[in-house]
Amino acid sequence: MLTIEELLFRSVAACVRELWGAECESGMIQLQKTKREFEGDITLVVFPLLRLSHRPPEQTADAVGRWIAERHPEITAYNVIKGFLNMVIHDAYYVRMLNAAATDHDFGHRHPETGSDPCLVEYSSPNTNKPLHLGHIRNNLLGYAISNILMANGIRVVKTNLVNDRGIHICKSMLAWQRWGNGETPSSSGKKGDHLVGDYYVRFEREYRQQVEQLVQAGQRQEEAEKNAPLMLEAQELLRRWEAGDTEVIALWKMMNGWVYEGFDETYRRLGVDFDIVYYESDTYLHGRDAVMEGLAKGVFKRHDDGSVWVDLREEGLDEKVLLRSDGTSVYITQDIGTAMLRHRRFHPSRMIYVVGNEQNYHFRVLALVLGRLGFPWAASLHHLSYGMVELPEGRMKSREGTVVDADDLMDEMTETARTMSLELGKLEGLDETEKEDIYRVIGLGALKYYILKVDPVKNMTFNPSESIDFDGNTGTFIQYTHARIRSVFRKAEELGITVPREVPDRAPLNGKEREIIKLILDFPAVLRDAADTCNPSLLANYSYQLVKEYNQFYHDHSILREENKDIRSLRLVMSSTVGRVVKDAMNLLGIEMPDRM
């Protein structure tokens, strides 16, 4: 069945052809929702058609409105406001479209094209010198939600994670454990492995700053002191030995990284995110280094007197960028070159999306340019999904100072807050403790995820836990509560012996609120497309809020099960069921579970 927008688009084109003997060019037919202050459902912007009609706006709009209304019973009335044609759609059309949505189990989704190349989405990308924190939570939630949204639009997706398991930051934690660990392990300390290793990273930074301060007091400049501090020199030597394959260093590295991986996996499970394939920089950096050396041999890059290798990007408006240090060790860009090459060789993706914070905007511009210089035409398919930073009400987080919000601690806090609120409301009587604990978890994590995902990714955001769990307003808790309310309606219907129909007779009348809700339901496919096209999960999040807000107002003002008119009762039951299903689908795509009771 054609949507009303598709029908009107074709009708306007036919009208212009018949009345004025002209063809509408691309962009001339502009349809939009009618503004609330005017009567109508869909508005045609007439101004682009004036050069074809050679008539004033009002006459052109009236002629088009009359032509369409005479041919399409779906249009029950129209009115003209200057250059805008507002058209009223028949109730029966909306009822038929509601029935179509209610019976379509894949409503809004597209099926993947067979044989299509996948899209790779990289997210998480943690460092193995510290546990996951609030910033990582935003990264993981964005990447996972975008992957789901793309798949719902029929795009094959490979979810990837690149673990930063090598480099000077890793060596700092290793050195601190050697110095002050006394053989401590996750088992002996009772700590998660990623937390334990993160504690030693913080210890290194604290001891290192003290050494720098002492050197400055002894007369060295700050920059000199930071380079000459004994701890930093030892960490750099540890990195050199690692890259040289020193067996003792490699063994220590494997042991401590193993602790971290176990910790990460536990956090990922709690957060509800996963990956199809995990890459490790320790495996990919050599491929990047080989590519850089090949580019050097071809004259694409140049070597400085100190032996370091650089790329000159000044023609592209950037500057020179180091690709290999003077001691031959790799930098981040070298590793990303190798990873991109390996991914393309294996998957031949149509696009590679990197979900990485906006502080790396320059890095990804350089990466695409360097891959292009190396002769890879697919470099143009790289897309950096740049998102803003997450701050706390008291300011930015700092890993080196140990002032970050730990992801595990935050999930614990959110679950505990949900438990407290649920116990105060007293709505979970009759459930056993296991069921209650699961609902606390679902509410707490749902509040956390929605609070983050409702914000446009490009924006910086401030996370305030106390605002995220609220049964009113634009929160995940409010959306979950509405879904639970809808499920309660159907439990009561079953108790009363009321059968929920599959479809509604199109003679069922609609009130204004029911029309608005059905129109919002029918917007779901377009919102899902836009969210995929723009890689913006907030469109889906805020759509869900608008839908449940309209539904709650309807629920407050109108009876469902006590409605005596059977056609109207059937309409409201089918509409309620479809709202619940659409909202559950949208939230599940965001990685948010929807409880049946709250």
Structural summary, described in words:
There is one protein chain. The protein contains 21 helices and 14 strands. A five-stranded parallel beta sheet has the order 7-6-5-11-12, with helices on both faces. It has 598 residues and is α/β, with parallel strands linked by helices. Helix 5 (134-152) links the parallel strand 5 (119-122) and strand 6 (157-163). The longest helix is centred in the middle third of the chain and has 25 residues, at 193-217. It is globular.
Average predicted confidence as pLDDT: 94
Number of helices: 21
Largest sheet strand order: 7-6-5-11-12
| Unreliably modeled segments | none
Strand-residue proportion: 5-15%
Q: Total number of β-strand segments? A: 14
The secondary structure category is alpha/beta
| Radius of gyration from CA coordinates | 30 Å
How far the N terminus sits from the C terminus, by CA atoms, comes to 38 Å
| Main beta sheet | 5 strands, parallel
Global geometry: globular
Residue share in helix: 55-70%
What is the topology?
Blueprint: H1 4-20, E1 30-33, E2 42-45, H2 50-53, H3 57-71, E3 75-81, E4 84-89, H4 91-103, E5 119-122, H5 134-152, E6 157-163, H6 168-180, H7 186-189, H8 193-217, H9 222-228, H10 230-243, H11 247-271, E7 277-280, H12 281-297, E8 302-303, E9 309-312, E10 320-324, H13 332-347, E11 351-357, H14 361-373, E12 382-387, E13 390-391, H15 407-425, H16 433-453, E14 461-462, H17 465-468, H18 476-495, H19 512-534, H20 538-557, H21 566-589
Parallel strand pairs: 5-6, 5-11, 6-7, 11-12, 13-14
Antiparallel strand pairs: 1-2, 2-4, 3-4, 8-9, 9-10
Helix pairs in contact: 4-19, 4-21, 5-19, 6-8, 6-10, 8-9, 8-11, 12-13, 15-16, 18-20, 18-21, 19-20, 19-21, 20-21
